[in-house]
Design brief:
The structure is a single chain. By secondary structure, the chain is α/β, with parallel strands linked by helices. The protein contains 13 helices and 15 strands. The strands form three sheets. Strands 1, 3, 7, 9, 10, 11, 12, 13, 14 and 15 form a ten-stranded mixed sheet that branches.
Length: 427
């Protein structure tokens, strides 16, 4: 079989690396004489993207807002203390009961929730809004790199593999000029076609990236060759990790998402200088029969909660230097629809957890951070959605600056003036 570069990069679910130059990108990051900053050593960011638009109002329940129960007569989560009620966090907000595995993390100050997060040009489109949250750019996502890739471009790391997605494809958040990897997992580094099984991934990579294609421009050949060399070295490093037996410090659920987090823990504990890990959990587009205490949404929340709980336990002391953050397309409508579900909405909640949160929680002890806008009809966006009171780019900026240690915010998240939120302690 003739394995071309195009085939390898597009077809291999085992491993892919993205390193492209887009001359049309309006945000040119490299300036003459500018030196990238050294990021903090040993810090890792784990981004969990909840694809489909998760219902933040039933995930972190505003049980102290009586209007919540007026707009959700069938799917509302009962108040704390009632049968299958919300797990109270601060007297006003509570967790969905299926998030019970994560409740101790909030009690211990390891996790916190941010509510009413969003921005003011939400289109309610899955594709457009995922692009916005992954690029950090409003209105020009087509030509923009992912904001995490721009972090890589404007900083220097401490390892061969700085950014990696665990899944079949590289997400938009990691697309850009700097190399980023996508792997199914440490245990699956071989190419899918059986005809390649004997040669393995090394021979396939060497063939795919040999700089002998005369149809390619000279600069393109050099770029591809450099990328291929980096890919090959990265695979060899992952193979070394694979060769070392791994016994997790927690029992993970028997689920694909949980297995991704187990692989993430294994990589973090290998101490290879990995700064960014991205994993997806889809299935949050609950237009029909979403359910309340039980149902489709509750099952998805349980998968998330059980997996995150095991992940934090497995990390052990490595959790001190790890920040876990959830993102999603958008929130859902405040009012349930006629199919006992919710439609594409506006503001949402997100989770942040790990050592940087714990340090701040020790001082402030706030399980939920929100300037709550309210759910009364006159307070809703377009009379249907939770308003946003925190811009998501302020959250991302704090993660980049305080946790990853990159002060180049005007390059990582261009075109925006930041408001300091005080979510994280500088680590």
């Amino acid at each position: 079989m003739n394995l071309t570069r195009r085939y390898f990069l597009k077809s291999s679910g085992a491993l892919a690396v993205y390193c492209g130059v887009n001359p049309l990108n309006p945000y040119l990051l490299a300036e003459p004489g500018q030196q990238p900053v050294d990021v903090k050593k040993g810090k890792t960011l784990v981004v969990i993207f909840l694809r489909g638009g998760t219902d933040g109002l039933n995930l972190v329940v505003p049980h102290g807002d009586d209007h919540y129960y007026k707009v959700r007569k069938n799917i509302a989560i009962p108040k704390p203390g009632k049968n299958k009620g919300a797990i109270d966090l601060d007297g006003f907000f509570g967790l969905h009961p299926s998030a019970a595995p994560m409740a101790p993390l909030f009690e211990e100050g390891v996790f916190q929730a941010l509510h009413a997060v969003g921005y003011d040009h939400n289109t309610r489109s899955h594709f457009e809004e995922q692009d916005v949250w992954e690029t950090g750019v409003i209105g020009n996502t087509v030509q923009s790199d992912g904001w995490l890739n721009r972090h890589l471009q404007t900083s220097k790391g401490h390892g061969l593999i700085r950014a990696l997605a665990i899944g079949d494809t590289l997400p938009r958040i990691l697309h850009g000029k700097s190399p980023a990897y996508a792997v199914r997992g440490i245990s699956d580094l071989s190419l899918p076609p059986s005809s390649l099984a004997k040669e393995g991934v090394f021979a396939a990579l060497e063939h795919a990236y040999m700089p002998s294609d005369r149809n390619m421009a000279r600069d393109g050949v050099e770029l591809v060759h450099q990328t291929g060399t980096l890919t090959l070295e990265g695979v060899k490093l992952l193979e070394k990790i694979k060769a070392q037996p791994y016994q997790p410090n927690a029992e993970y659920p028997k689920d694909g998402f949980a297995n991704k987090l187990k692989e993430a823990a294994r990589l973090i504990k290998a101490n290879i200088g990995l700064e960014v890990i991205e994993v997806d959990l889809g299935g949050w587009d609950t237009h029909n029969r979403q359910g309340g205490v039980e149902g489709t949404f509750a099952n998805k929340v349980n998968i998330l909660s059980e997996s995150v709980k095991a992940f934090t336990q497995d990390l052990g002391s490595h959790l001190d230097d790890t920040l876990i953050m959830t993102l999603s397309d958008f929130g859902r409508t405040a009012r349930e629809n006629g199919s006992q579900g919710t439609d594409h909405g506006w503001a949402n909640c997100l989770f942040m957890g790990g050592g940087p949160v714990k340090k701040l929680q020790d001082q402030q002890s706030k399980p939920v951070i929100s300037e709550w806008p309210g759910l009364a009809p006159e307070l809703l966006h377009q009379k249907r959605d939770l308003q946003h009171t925190t811009d998501f780019r302020d959250v991302l900026a704090e993660v980049v600056r305080e946790h990853l240690g990159n002060p180049n915010l005007e390059k990582v998240l261009p075109g925006y003036e930041f408001q300091k939120l005080g979510l994280l302690t500088p680590s």
